[in-house]
TrEMBL record:
Organism the protein comes from: Oceanobacillus longus
Reactions catalysed: Hydrolyzes the link between N-acetylmuramoyl residues and L-amino acid residues in certain cell-wall glycopeptides
Top-rank EC class of the record's enzyme: hydrolase
Keyword Hydrolase recorded: yes
Protein name: N-acetylmuramoyl-L-alanine amidase
Amino acid sequence: MVLIKKQLVNSTRSGYPGINGRKFITIHETANTSPGADAQTHANLQSNGFTASWHWQVDDKEAIQSFEHTARLWHAGDGRGDGNMNSIGIEICVNRDGDFKKAVENAAELVKKIMKDEGIPQTNVVQHHRWSSKNCPTNLRNGSKGIDWADFNRMISSARGDTSEGQPKQPVTTPSAPKPRWTKVTGKWSGQTLGKGEYGEPVRQLQTKLSNNNPQFYPNKQATNNGIDSYYGDDTEDAVRRFQSYYGLSVDGLAGKQVYNKLNSNKTPTNSGTSLPNTVYRAIRPYPSGSGVRAVQEALASVYYYPDKDAKNNGVDGVYGPKTADAVRRFQLTHGLAADEIYGPATKKALENVMN
């Protein structure tokens, strides 16, 4: 069984108030390939007040718990959606001096234990991608390290440990989803309610607005044309839910008048193709400002290093002040850079690598 340690964080600024519903287990990868960026390093980051937060970190040697499962943390990128409100977050370390396959095996054993402790079914062990469309856990999603998501699920089914209590293992079966019946809708979308199972021009207009919003809510960032296909399926419903959660709307996955009005009141798009500036920013008065700073802030927010999570638009205001400098510092700390709070060529390259 994987070695389990506790290094619990006593903080009220690492998540949302209330009790985590513990209905899901969300699997992440740290995206930090720096040598030594193991479970202990990430546990120490959380102990030192890192803004993002997750319950566990696992490497090829051990699993370390940073928060009780009852804590609602900032790990899923879906605001007050099920990812943050009702799931337990596990980060698998990808440091290049570690054994990734062994880290995944250890994560599978940990997941099996949590499933038993919290009564969570294997069908509710999900990828970070489910909540915010972020390409995470990247290596398990693309199989680039010789092990993929299907392998991980097989590991969970056969994980060692005391979870079976001598009982024979039962096969894990997932019922095949019924094929949806699509209903065609026509005309222009002007706020009439759209929902799962519909297709046509109004759905395409909704998807386009979600993709152009600031911040963007792609129906499926990994698909052709960001998943803009005129079909209101699971990905579009998920994008609508994340949009509703982000803007404090009723979260039901239906695109009606509230969603329409909010999309049309937030018309300034974030151009995902905008390159990061080739310059240097320091938080020295008068603070640097302008579109270049905004691009840096938006890049940081897109990978969950918010300039100011408690401010409007997560503090994306085009001004390189102390909070933006702190976000840069936190990003630098987790990516093996000098934590000098200065945006420059090395930070630009690391940001581009994480976003791509």
